[in-house]
């Protein structure tokens, strides 16, 4: 590439900088002009990157990139004022997408100065120049990471271009990680120490975490590719390397891996869940945190949760050999859900002796509903023949007080088996008198179960939505409210002048119309940022009708449809809360004056 060709980059940057300098009085022509300049600059930078030959000095090109990166500052302030409705007058501004794209292109120019500079070889030889080159690599790495964070934030604000933002966020974080692989942690620690090293490690952690979040969001919107799954695993390995530098990193990494696994579970992505869970287990077992005395318990809980997800995928795919190996690894493999999964798998594979042994363990758990479900699965495997019905007699010996419920279950299931209907009628006649007496109680119990299942389903969905916002919340087993804690967002909320739960609830109501109660009304300290979120606004009759057709552990898509049909107002309220929380997050850190990274 000739010198005059390379100088074209400088001319495009000058043009973009001149246009962005008119941030307070941007015209429609200025906006269109910036879009044309960015389009041309992207094309040129991409072409030069492929040629890998540049006659312009690396320092000069780096300065051009820094200048372009800093250019949108004023325009972004104007856009923030317009978005926050700080002014009533109609003002024209550069679009959020154009400003974010400007910083992305600027990072690409800075990257070009690293990969194409004719001075690279010399820089890596001498100590002083090697230090300078290290600083430039770290600076560009941070620039790409901050651009990725800006794109992720913008995706929740400018929803019309959500896909474009996420695609650019993915590319930005990928470029950042490529530069990080070029630098390396061991090499970095030779040049950086103390607070400077700590700041860089903190940035790297945030970039990797947000990269995982971007890849998860992309997986929800399109077909998940194995490449995206590999990128997630790559980011998790990078996070593992950083865990020794901060005591909180190890437990945070466990939470991140569980969230990814749960997303695969809800999306029924069995082919991705299995390799991910196996690798996540290896990462979890390699983590250490001597400063946290509760960390061994966290590891045990992590393994229980992750192995449960893995077992569910293996059972769904019918991989009995690996499912058995997974079952042996589960810390609490006598958990009722574990036993029910394995019982069903053994019955489906006609391994009734193994299923029977697990049922004997299940019957000892003192949970009649799960025991009855396990017995029903076992008997169904024998088509409710006399041999299969023997399991009910064994169940009755463990739950003698439940004879009536057991007999009803037998009769009802026999009624659906060809050739067993007369037997079912005889059984129903035998218990007819008791059935009539207990009918009202059964209907009441059924009504209560439906109510409980409805509330569990809604509560589970609400908890999942809050967890996606990084809000601490306990998934409820029953009840009609949640008690989330917003303390993880304390710093971001403080920027809005919110330091107590009452201020949080008042500001949320004012901004969105969504009403929740402060935790201080229920005995919590105001600065703990707890809130009480009730979910009672739903169509009761419709809920009781639809809940009958819902599986015991429905997919996230099924729950979404249920929520939108039964409680549309709650769905709208949660979307408003999510948008409000996204706006509460601080913007990506602007470039430091004089440095530009």
From TrEMBL:
One term of GO molecular function: transaminase activity
Cofactor(s) this protein requires: pyridoxal 5'-phosphate
Keywords: Aminotransferase, Pyridoxal phosphate, Transferase
UniProt KW Transferase keyword: yes
Protein name: BTB and MATH domain-containing protein 40
An annotated GO BP: amino acid metabolic process
Entry's family note: Belongs to the class-I pyridoxal-phosphate-dependent aminotransferase family.
């Amino acid at each position: 590439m000739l010198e005059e060709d390379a100088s074209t980059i400088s001319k495009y940057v000058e043009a973009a900088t001149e246009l962005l300098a008119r941030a307070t009085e941007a015209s429609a022509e200025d906006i269109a002009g910036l879009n044309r300049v960015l389009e041309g600059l992207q094309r040129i930078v991409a072409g030069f990157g492929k040629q890998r030959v540049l006659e312009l000095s690396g320092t000069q090109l780096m300065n051009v990139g820094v200048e372009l990166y800093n250019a949108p500052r004023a325009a972004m302030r104007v856009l923030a004022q317009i978005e926050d409705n700080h002014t009533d007058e109609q003002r024209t501004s550069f679009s959020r997408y154009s400003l974010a794209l400007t910083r992305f292109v600027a990072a690409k120019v800075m990257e070009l100065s690293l990969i194409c500079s004719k001075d690279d070889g010399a820089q890596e030889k001498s100590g002083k120049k090697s230090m300078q080159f290290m600083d430039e690599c770290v600076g560009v790495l941070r620039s790409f990471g901050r651009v990725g964070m800006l794109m992720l934030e913008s995706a929740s604000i400018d929803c019309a271009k959500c896909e474009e933002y996420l695609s650019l966020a993915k590319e930005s974080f990928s470029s950042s990680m490529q530069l990080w692989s070029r630098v390396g942690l061991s090499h970095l620690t030779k040049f950086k120490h103390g607070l400077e090293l700590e700041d860089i490690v903190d940035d790297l952690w945030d970039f990797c975490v947000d990269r995982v979040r971007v890849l998860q969001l992309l997986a929800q919107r399109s077909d998940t590719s194995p490449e995206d799954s590999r990128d997630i695993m790559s980011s998790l390995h990078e996070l593992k390397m950083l865990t020794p530098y901060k005591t909180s990193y190890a437990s945070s990494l466990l939470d991140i891996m569980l969230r990814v696994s749960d997303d695969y579970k809800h999306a029924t992505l069995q082919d991705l869940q299995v390799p991910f869970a196996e690798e996540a287990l290896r990462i979890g077992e390699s983590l250490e945190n001597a400063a946290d005395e509760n960390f061994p318990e966290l590891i045990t809980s992590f393994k229980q949760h992750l192995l449960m997800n893995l077992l569910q995928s293996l059972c769904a795919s019918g991989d009995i050999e690996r499912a058995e190996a997974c079952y042996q690894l589960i810390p609490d493999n006598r958990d009722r859900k574990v036993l029910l999964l394995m019982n069903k798998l053994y019955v489906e594979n006609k391994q009734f002796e193994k299923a029977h042994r697990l049922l004997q363990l299940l019957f000892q758990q003192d949970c009649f509903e799960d025991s009855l479900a396990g017995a029903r699965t076992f008997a169904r495997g024998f088509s409710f023949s006399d041999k299969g019905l023997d399991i009910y007699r064994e169940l009755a010996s463990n739950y003698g007080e439940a004879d009536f419920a057991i007999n009803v279950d037998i009769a009802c299931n026999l009624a659906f088996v060809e050739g067993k209907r007369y037997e079912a009628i005889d059984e129903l006649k035998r218990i007819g008198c008791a059935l009539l007496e207990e009918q009202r109680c059964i209907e009441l119990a059924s009504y209560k179960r439906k109510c409980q299942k409805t509330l569990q389903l809604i509560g589970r969905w609400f908890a999942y939505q809050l967890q996606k916002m990084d809000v601490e919340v306990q998934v409820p087993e029953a009840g009609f409210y949640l008690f989330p804690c917003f303390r993880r967002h304390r710093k971001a909320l403080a920027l809005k002048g919110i330091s107590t739960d009452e201020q949080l609830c008042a500001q949320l109501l004012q901004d969105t119309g969504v009403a929740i109660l402060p935790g201080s009304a229920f005995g919590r300290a105001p600065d703990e940022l707890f809130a009480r979120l009730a979910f009672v606004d739903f169509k009761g009759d419709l809920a009781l009708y639809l809940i009958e057709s819902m599986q015991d552990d429905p997919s996230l898509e099924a729950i979404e449809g249920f929520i939108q049909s039964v409680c549309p107002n709650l769905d709208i309220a949660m979307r408003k809360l999510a948008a409000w929380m996204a706006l509460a997050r601080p913007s990506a850190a602007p470039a430091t004056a004089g440095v530009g990274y």
